Amino acid sequence: MEKLEYKDSNKKPSINDNAITKLSVCGVIKDHTLDVLQKLESEMPSVFQSYSDLYVRYLHSVRDIFGTCSLAEKQYFDKTKIDQNTLKIFDSYLESVTNILESQIDFSNSLTRTYMQLRLSSIDSWDKYMHFCVDMYAKSMASFSSKE
User: Fold this and answer.
1) Domain limits for position 13
2) For residues 103 and 116, what is the distance between their CA atoms, to the nearest angstrom?
3) What is the pTM (predicted TM-score) of this model?
4) What is the pLDDT of residues 138-148, one digit of tens each?
5) Cβ atoms within 10 Å of 28's Cβ, excluding its own
6) Which pLDDT score, from 0 to 100, does residue 148 have?
7) Which residue, of 57, 81, 105, is where some domain finishes?
8) Which of 19, 50, 59, 116 could pair with 7 as two cysteines, CB 3.0-4.6 Å apart?
9) Looking at the structure, do residues 72 and 89 belong to the same domain, yes or no?
10) pLDDT tens digits, residue range 38-97?
11) How far is 122 from 119, CA to CA, in rounded Å?
């Protein structure tokens, strides 16, 4: 593909710019496509950071509300003198529920990691295939060009 030459290397050319030696359809499409992809890529860290900040704030809020309610409930339940054996059974039950939830969280995280690896592998395979197709396309175009 031909390289565009510009009088001012810091300035992007415009269609009406006389400094452009030659434009090509592929070059114009490629330049604008790369601009969009570069913009998306540059925005990703802030998008992910925003989701992370949102999640951290959500968890902090839930922890705060639960802590406040827990203090109020503690004062009430401490006065009721609940049987210790009942509390031990309740503690055991909540421990098993906690273990199940933590196990599900671990499983979910493992599944997500595996899924992401699958997607990355799929993209790598697709990329290799597309490079093969583009190489074949380029060879076909070159053979058509050489016949003229």
Assistant:
1) 1-81
2) 20
3) 0.58
4) 999 888 877 66
5) 13
6) 61
7) 81
8) 19
9) no
10) 999 999 999 999 999 999 999 999 999 988 888 888 888 888 888 999 999 999 999 999
11) 5
Paired tokens of 38: 């570069």
Rounded to the nearest angstrom, the gap between the alpha carbon of residue 87 and the centroid of all alpha carbons in its chain is: 44
For residue 6, the one-letter residue type is Y
| Structural domain count of the chain | 2
Give the pLDDT confidence score for residue 32 in this predicted structure: 93
pLDDT in tens, 9-43: 445 555 555 555 688 888 899 999 999 999 999 99
Residues 147, 92 share a domain:
yes
- Domain boundary pick from 81, 104, 125: 81
Reading the block at residue 129, the tokens are: 């295939």
Same domain, 103 and 44: no
> Are residues 63 and 18 part of one domain?
yes
Contact 40, 52 (CB under 8 A): no
Q: Is 6 left (phi over 0), alpha (psi -120 to 50) or beta?
A: beta
